[in-house]
Amino acid sequence: MNRLIILGLVVTFLTSCSEYEKLLKSDDVQLKYDKAFEYYEDKQYVKSATLLQYLIPIYKATDKAAKVEFFYAKSLYGQKDYILAGYHFGEFAKNFGNSKYTEEAVFMHAYCFYLHSPRPTLDQDYTYKAIEAFTMFQIKFPDSEKITESKEILTELNNKLAKKAYINSKLYFDLGYYKSSIVTLRNTINDYPNSKFREELMFMLLKSNYLLAENSIASKQKERYQNTVDEYYSFIDEFPESEFSKEAVKIYNNSMSELNN
User: Fold this and answer.
1) Tens-place pLDDT, residues 165-178
2) Of 205, 199, 211, nearest to 184 (Cα)?
3) What is the value of pTM for the model shown?
4) Residue 189's CB: how many other CB atoms inside 10 A?
5) pLDDT: which is higher, 24 or 128
6) pLDDT of res. 2
7) Angle 243-245-247 (CA atoms, 0-180°, nearest 5)?
8) Of 148, 125, 230, 234, which Cα lies nearest the Cα of 190?
9) N or C: which end of the chain has fewer CB within 10 A?
């Protein structure tokens, strides 16, 4: 029974391939058009994309042009070729600004960038592109059903950038480059004020100032210990119950002792 099933599947596959090859060689444009969308509905995206790509120049400047080009992009997306799909969704949005498919195309253009956004330790070029594209989507279609989803994705992408900035700042801190650490930590805090890393970033900023002062020449220590005290007040005012409070108080007491001396 199993062998019969396998044989049947093989025959079906070969027949299907034979029909598809004949279709490619056919001059029947309407048949190719109909079959392209059949293949798309059956999730045979390679076949649908091949036929739709052939049909694009034929239907250009006709009332079917938008549908053919939009579903060509969707067929590429179905193949998980997100870079090429994203490009064609973007081109569709430029060329068919008033189509019923435009809203989805603009969203999908942004979504393809989102799918290519890498983990925080890597270059975030696609993350920035996705943020820009989703922002444009929200401006163009403020009443879209996908506004909520786009906002959630934007939050996720901004959190990723915040984590990237946190990792970079912490690297300077861990390496003991306290001047650079102070600059990058302050920039990260200012750029991502609502980051979940804010408490730790502010503590590292406090500690960086303290360690910089501790390792400075005598002529610069007073100013740098005073900066440490100022950072302590900022930190403890915002996070009075912080897990870093005990160490923060110790840093403050040592800094005040140095200033009094």
Assistant:
1) 999 999 999 999 99
2) 205
3) 0.84
4) 20
5) 128
6) 58
7) 105
8) 234
9) N
